[in-house]
Design a protein that fits this description.
8 helices; 278 residues
Length: 278
């Protein structure tokens, strides 16, 4: 992952109550994930698309981990659809999965993770090799999903940021939108691309300052388990999600222009959420 210039704040003091809450949250989350893994295995064996399972699962996990999800605007109902969002933490998947319909485009390593990999597969995630993004078999799979009129969710930064600034979007990921319209199925129609902004804005109802945002972001060389334990002890975390106006590939001369537009919209939206304006 890319390094950030933001220096994390000093270690948070740990209270006995905070530690107890953290233990309870992680225990309940473990039970939920174990049940989810079992359900995922059954769904995969039965060939079920797992859409209802996915939304329920992410919603329950968000509640258990203390995520308060606040949305602004609405997900566009047109299909096929590509939702593109800035990326801050592994919590993004839980929050966005609970707030929006669609399957995630995820890095191929996740498919091999225990429990989480099963959950992702049951949610019909598309797994992409990070060294050959949106090419070969993965690109074909994405195309097949879009041609079937589905909704896909991806993070064009291809890694997570520090929660304050967005990283540049990789325009190569927008190739799928370009190719879909070039091979347009008249019964399905053109693909709709909807920018989405996300930010972690409050802790226990109080605004999160710039010096504390690194606690909620997962970036650089951070290890997953210590970071998750830290978050579990904190309290109620408000994550805000803005669904911006959708656009079509035809509105732009090429995928780079489409990528640049979405990057600016997502970046401006993230800044507004952090500033308390939406």
């Amino acid at each position: 992952m890319a390094k950030s210039l933001v220096v994390p704040a000093p270690a948070l003091p740990t209270t006995r109550l905070g530690a107890l809450v953290g233990v309870l949250r992680l225990l309940v989350a473990s039970v939920v994930m174990a049940f989810s893994a079992l359900t995922a295995g059954i769904l995969i064996a039965l060939g079920n698309d797992g859409e209802r399972y996915r939304c329920w699962n992410y919603g329950v996990l968000a509640w258990v981990l203390g995520l308060k999800i606040v949305t602004h605007g609405f997900q566009n109902s047109a299909r096929p659809q590509l939702l593109v969002c800035n990326h801050i933490s592994y919590l993004d998947i839980i929050a966005l999965g609970a707030a929006a319909e669609g399957a995630f485009v995820a890095k191929s390593e996740i498919a091999k993770w225990p429990v989480i990999g099963l959950m992702a597969r049951a949610g019909r995630s598309v797994f992409v090799d990070r060294r050959r993004t949106a090419t070969g078999a993965a690109r074909n799979q994405i195309q097949e999903r879009l041609e079937a009129g589905e909704s896909l969710i991806m993070f064009p930064e291809s890694t997570s940021g520090d929660g304050t600034r967005m990283l540049p979007f990789k325009s190569s990921l927008f190739t799928v939108a370009e190719q879909h319209d070039a091979q347009l199925n008249k019964q399905i129609g053109p693909i709709t691309v909807q920018p989405v902004s996300m930010a972690y804005t409050r802790l226990n109802g109080l605004p999160i300052g710039v010096g504390w945002r690194a606690y909620f972001a997962w970036f650089g060389d951070m290890e997953l388990v210590p970071h998750l334990w830290q978050l579990a002890k904190l309290g109620i975390i408000t994550v805000e999600i803005t669904f911006h106006d959708p656009v079509s590939r035809a509105e732009f001369p090429d995928r780079k222009a489409l990528s640049a537009h979405c990057e600016k919209v997502c970046s401006d939206g993230m800044a507004q959420l952090l500033a308390g304006r939406h």
